[in-house]
Write a structure and sequence with these properties.
It is built from 14 helices and six strands. The chain is mostly helical. The protein folds into three domains: 64 residues, Endolytic murein transglycosylase (Dna Ligase, domain 1, 2-Layer Sandwich), CATH 3.30.1490.480; 68 residues, Dna Ligase, domain 1 (2-Layer Sandwich), CATH 3.30.1490; 128 residues, no CATH class. Strands 1-2 form a two-stranded antiparallel ribbon. It has a two-stranded antiparallel ribbon with strand order 3-4. The chain has a two-stranded antiparallel ribbon with strand order 5-6. Strand 5 and strand 6 form a beta hairpin. The longest helix has 53 residues. The chain is elongated and about 85 Å long.
Length: 345
């Protein structure tokens, strides 16, 4: 084989080798693309599975509901509680995330509240740093509210509030839970509420300490009288005059005959009928002389002041006309005359 033939042969070998390399390259590329697609599909399925069954919030996530992480519980116990309460889908995922965060010994016990569904990462972070999500509710307790009315107000907004517990503890101190605007966390208990309102009463009553100290009546009697005045009169002046009437009646042994004390024993909206007035109740101040056994609601500061500073002009009777204006008289005949004048009776 001469030199030219050898060169041609070598060129054919190079060309054949190149073609084979190109074929192998194309074949590798095709299979590589297939493998990549397979890997991506499998990886996507794994991620989707992990998200659906481990990460995303459960369908029953307790939005705006208190969730309690027990004090002294282990990571596993906390994970179990959260899973049972529908906060997370997988206790295992929660434990892994907490471990990766290095917070397994720093989880915060207490009540948590989530405004919207959170995934397991957000829940783990919240419990790790103690982000409880609790914001206080603004709750208004109006003047004259009874403990039963308060219980209805609190039970509508506070998830840890126990009505029976509250009534059992608050009923003996009816009148001493000061009516005001309060800010309570959603996990506030009956004890917290009672303590806060009772302390507020002590703070408020201190403002009229000279008036109460100079009164000839006990604090208990002042609170009971003030609770009646809260419902019987509007302005401070009227309440002081009505206080003068009612203290005078007590002084001469006359029955108070205050409708407000009977209303206290009735259900909301129930009218005072002759049958009701004949009921032998200790709150029936038509049948029983003296003050009722307890206050009939929580009086405002002006009612407490009115009870301590009555204006006695010798009146024994009063009535409010259809415009809310109170009229007074010293005799029963005068009372009848006012009834005819203002009510046509």
């Amino acid at each position: 084989m001469n030199t030219e033939e050898f060169a041609q042969w070598l060129e054919r070998v190079f060309e054949a080798t190149h073609r084979r390399l190109v074929e192998l390259s194309e074949h590798w590329k095709q299979h590589t693309n297939r493998r990549t697609i397979v890997v991506l599909i499998l990886g996507g399925c794994a991620i989707a599975y992990a998200y659906i069954y481990w990460i995303q919030p459960p369908d029953t996530f307790p939005t705006d509901q208190l969730v309690t992480v027990p004090n002294g519980a282990t990571v596993s116990e906390i994970a179990e509680v959260l899973q049972e309460d529908g906060v997370i889908r997988s206790g295992t995922a929660f434990r892994i995330i907490v471990t990766l965060l290095g917070k397994q010994r720093q989880l915060h016990a207490g009540d948590y509240l989530f405004k919207e569904p959170e995934d397991v990462f957000s829940v783990a972070r919240a419990v790790s740093i103690g982000a409880y999500g609790l914001e206080p509710f603004r709750i208004r307790v109006s003047e004259g509210a009874t403990t039963k009315e308060m219980a209805r107000i609190f039970s509508r907004q506070l998830q840890r509030f126990n009505t029976d517990d509250f009534l059992a503890k608050a009923a003996p101190i009816e009148g001493y839970l000061f009516p005001d605007t309060y800010f309570f966390l959603p996990n506030a208990t009956a004890d917290t509420i009672i303590q806060t309102m009772r302390q507020n009463f002590d703070t408020q009553i201190a403002a009229i300490q000279p008036e109460t100290a100079s009164s000839t009546h006990s604090m208990s009697d002042l609170v009971i009288m003030a609770s009646i005045l809260e419902r019987e009169g509007r302005a401070l002046g009227d309440r002081r005059l009505i206080a003068g009437v009612l203290w005078r009646r007590l002084r001469i042994g006359m029955a108070l005959q205050a409708d407000a004390t009977m209303i206290y024993t009735l259900e909301r909206g129930e009218p005072i009928t002759p049958k009701v007035l004949a009921t032998d109740s200790p709150y029936n101040t038509y049948l029983h002389k003296g003050l009722p056994p307890t206050a009939i609601g929580s009086p405002s500061l002006i009612s407490l002041e009115a009870a301590a500073t009555p204006i006695d002009k010798g009146y024994l009777y009063y009535l409010a006309d259809s415009h809310g204006v109170t009229h007074y008289s010293k005799t029963y005949a005068g009372q009848l005359a006012n009834e005819r004048l203002y009510f046509g009776q």
